[in-house]
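TICKET: design request
STATUS: open
ATTACHED STRUCTURE:
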């Protein structure tokens, strides 16, 4: 009972980290672009460059293990899991680049609703990779989110930002949708690695896994920055930034911290629940981001966005109700099994 309570507490804490990241990340990224930022690769790089922050808890955990057991390994991650994390990290870097392209060209409210469709692809990949069988409730949630994304597609272009060409708008639209597809694959891949690991996936190992992922995603985007001469352009861009040079670097640092909160929250939620549940949390929090974008950036919020928002929330309620119902069914079966075993034990 205590273990279950502790697990629930850690799940809630990771949901909070995920919430801070998914609500704050798109807003701070969009702020970078609308106030004069133009570097797509740099913006993608900022999503994972905060990975060294994770070295602090990883090293503390390592030193604690070695203080109690002299023969304890410095790191828990094996070469096999390291290779998997590196490969998924490269995919994450590509996903970040496509997403940054979308945020640069679309209003936050539109890009957020498109990203919410990742739950559809995640449900499919979760079934194929980790055999997570869909329920009537999860299928209903997927259908509702799909309808919402289709509605946005039919009305796409009506909220095109001033100065953005139709071609660039549609490029951002398609790249954001592709980012949703790829991220729908990435999370089940991570869960598959967890299941196939020939060792206990402790939270320390999960953080080591995320550190490797973040490092390789950052390396991928660093190569893009070098090719695009972003490092040379940053000082000039900072001086010309409409909020001022100091605030430019504040936005950059905050972006790195907030996005690291997102990625840490995602892997934590997966560790204590599942990839599909993390997708549901992302999908339900994205509407909050949309509302904040309307408040802070005065973005248009047409009727189709309102309907799409309603469908997203309806999908979340559907999935959550199914999850709660399944939990109580399992709990009831467990009690029944324990009761039967107790009767057999006391029987003569």
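STATUS: resolved
RESOLUTION: sequence designed for all positions
ATTACHED SEQUENCE:
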């Amino acid at each position: 009972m205590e273990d279950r309570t502790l697990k629930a507490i850690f799940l809630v804490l990771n949901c909070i980290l995920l919430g801070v990241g998914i609500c704050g990340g798109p807003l701070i990224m969009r702020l970078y672009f609308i106030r004069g930022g133009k570097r797509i690769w740099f913006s993608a790089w900022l999503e994972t460059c905060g990975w060294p922050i994770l070295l602090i808890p990883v090293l503390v955990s390592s030193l604690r293990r070695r203080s109690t057991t002299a023969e304890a390994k410095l790191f828990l991650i094996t070469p096999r899991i390291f290779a998997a994390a590196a490969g998924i990290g490269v995919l994450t870097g590509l996903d970040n680049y496509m997403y940054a392209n979308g945020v640069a060209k679309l209003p936050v409210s539109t890009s957020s609703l498109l990203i919410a469709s990742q739950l559809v692809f995640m449900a499919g990949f979760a079934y194929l990779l980790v055999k997570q069988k869909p329920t009537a409730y999860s299928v209903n949630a997927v259908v509702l989110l799909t309808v919402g994304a289709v509605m946005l597609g039919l009305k796409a272009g009506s909220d095109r930002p001033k100065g953005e060409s139709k071609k660039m708008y549609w490029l951002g639209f398609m790249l954001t949708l592709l980012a949703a597809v790829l991220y729908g694959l990435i999370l089940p891949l991570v869960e598959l690695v967890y299941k196939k690991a020939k060792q206990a996936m402790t939270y320390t190992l999960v953080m080591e896994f995320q550190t490797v992922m973040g490092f390789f995603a950052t390396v991928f985007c660093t190569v893009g920055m070098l090719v695009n001469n972003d490092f040379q352009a940053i000082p000039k861009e900072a001086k010309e930034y409409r909020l001022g040079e100091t605030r430019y670097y504040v936005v950059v640092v905050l972006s790195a911290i907030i996005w690291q909160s997102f990625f840490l929250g995602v892997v934590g939620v997966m560790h204590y629940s599942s990839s599909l549940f993390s997708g549901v949390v992302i999908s339900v929090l994205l509407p909050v981001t949309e509302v904040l974008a309307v408040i802070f950036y005065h973005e248009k919020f047409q009727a189709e966005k309102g309907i799409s928002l309603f469908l997203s929330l309806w999908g979340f309620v559907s999935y959550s109700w199914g999850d709660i119902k399944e939990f109580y069914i399992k709990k009831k079966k467990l009690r029944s099994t324990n009761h039967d075993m107790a009767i057999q034990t006391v029987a003569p």
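CLOSING REMARK: Residues 303-346 form the longest helix (44 residues). The mean pLDDT is 83.
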